[in-house]
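Here is one chain, start to finish.
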Amino acid sequence: MKSEKNRRIDLKYNGKIKTLQVPSDRLLAVISPNQVTITDDPRAEILRALRAPVQAPPLAEAVRGARRVVIAADDMTRLTPVEVILPIIFDELNRGGVKDEQVTVLVALGTHRAMTRQELLEHFGPEVMRRVQVINNPWQDPAQMVDLGVTENGTPVSISRLALESDFLLGVGSIVPHHIPGYSGGAKIIQPGLTGPATTGATHFLSTRTRRYYLGMVENPVRTEMEQIADRVGLKAIFNVVLNSDGWLVRAFYGHPVAAHRAGAKVAEAVNGVLLPGLADVVLANAYPCEIEFWQSHKALYPADIAVKPGGVIVVHAACPEGVAVMHPEMLSFTGLPSSEIAARIEDGRIPDVTSGALALAWAKVRENASVYLVSEGITPDEARALGYTPFSDLESAVDAALASQGKDARLTVLTHAPDTLPIAPATR
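Its structure:
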């Protein structure tokens, strides 16, 4: 890509910085989460939230008399600083009369793979691992899950027995825009965090049946369903954080699972919501920080879909060192199909893994609005084509080809942290 006046753009990619030179006259915008003030004392902010809750008693007061506390916490696919948060929570539990040996941290995997012992140590830190038992949620073992029937909407509910039998169930996570429930955080730590695959499949399919996605819409049918499931399971409280694009703490929220989440979502919108100057012919969606596999990196698609013109091109830049989907390898047999065919196969049972089917359906709907080019060291060209995408070996070639396909006046928008960005299109201002 040659020009006398280039704009240099640095992108985080798999622990490195990738640099792209873009002709200034072809660049519409470079979009990142907003620069906001971070707390200068994270520990003090965490403690403040725990002792000044949203529509709930302080944690130390709420757990008095509890014999068994279970904390559902984010796994390594999230930036939630659990290594810092959890020891402070343990200290507050101790103040309320709950000893460390009465506490279990249950890793809210959803349908992700289990974390290894080394990954647990690196993610949660030595103090957490020393003080309490940390367990991967056993979502693949029916013997350790409990069937709670179905919701009013017909969603089958299975939940970790350990969580269900606790006296106090607390959820710990972070809040960012999310394509399925509008924002992450809140009840999402229970569903899909601690529920079985059938439950997760039903809510994921609900999101794609009712709308292309709910990114940035905090009140929606999927969020309602998740909150009803969390209430049935017995989620007592949540501790959620809002982070900036570098993972630094902006603000913490503790309290009622719905009220505390809504308070946090308002702050998350101020951090992540960015007005677009217009729709672009090409959108480069950098998948940082959701890079481990495409099962995470696909979150780059939905912000890009908002920012791109219909018929344009989305260039996804995603490392994906673990490939497409470690726990759902079969999905490559149907990800490239039209959305209508994927939906039909879910409905008639030909796609039994509804969770993977629902995500493939979401991917197809985006692909039918704009072509998708993929630059990834971890996904082979054949796998990219199975996803319905055009593979490229390097970022510059992909962007050049995308702009060329859209004509000499085509303009580019770059989303530097696409999964954590909520583009606000001009028509919605």
